Amino acid sequence: MLRVRAVREPPLLPTPYSPLPTPMSLFLAELKRSWTQSIRYASEILAGVIGTTVIFYGLFLSTRYIAGTGFQFGDRLDAIIIGYVLWALMLFILGDIAGGLQQEARTGTLEQLFLSPYSASTVFLMRALSSLLINLFINLSILLIIIAFTGSQIAFPPTLFPPLVAVFMGAYGISFAMGSLALLLKQVQQLLSVFQFALLFLFTAPVETWTGAAKTLGWFIPMAPGAGLLRDVMARGEGLNWSSLVIALLNGAVYLSFGLFLFRFAERETKRRGKLGGY
Q1: Number of domains the chain is built from
Q2: Is residue 62 part of a domain?
Q3: Per the domain annotation, does 100 fall within a domain?
Q4: Helices 120-150 and 75-94: angle between axes, nearest 10 degrees
Q5: pTM for this one?
Q6: pLDDT, mean of residues 247-275
Q7: Are the beta carbons of 174 and 259 closer than 8 angstroms?
Q8: Residue 125 is part of which domain span?
Q9: Quick one: 248 exposed, middle or buried, by C-beta within 10 A (0-12, 13-18, 19+)?
Q10: Which of 240, 97, 95, 86 is nearest to 167 (CA)?
Q11: C-alpha angle with apex 6: 2 to 8, nearest 5 degrees?
């Protein structure tokens, strides 16, 4: 008869506590990721800079040919340049969230992002902010090249930063709203293409010169108050209008809050349907 001898298992040792990484560490990790991708696909960035610059310069030459050699653009050219560069920057921001979600769904890594200790909105927000630093450098290069080609006299006073923050807040709000559609519908490329041309109107329309009811309407258009302030400060050399700045910041905060709300709603709805990993 065999006797089974009980073996006493050693007591379980307490595992060391691993605290949740700080948002700064997440931001630095995403910044390293964005920088690595930028270096690895530097040809794409270079092609984007050349293409964006060539398109504007072609439009500039065509407009000057139609208007005649004696026509003086004045500060209108500077205002159009600022709106165009803001539009190009917005295209980068839209690609960070909505385009990134589509790419993650295609490669099958979307579910891994939602298994992070952080919420998905926090992950994508840190990713967007980290890539924003690189995109700012890219768009500044585009702006300087356009200034050199057109002879523009755009100024860079310190007062441009508050309205620029207002524009970024509204831009990321729209980007999160489009990202919510990408979560639910998976394919929103055509919708993004149509929306890009609508944004070109928003950034080039001089809403700051509107009067009456149209001016009040301009306060509710996303990013329009901040873009108008940037044109006043950088193109026309005016001082910062503080009441308009408050309106621009409120506009950006409302659209950012609304975009984050839609993104979280789309996240819960996608998980409820079990379609997070589907494509």
Answers
A1: 1
A2: no
A3: yes
A4: 150
A5: 0.79
A6: 87
A7: yes
A8: 24-32+42-53+72-273
A9: buried
A10: 86
A11: 160
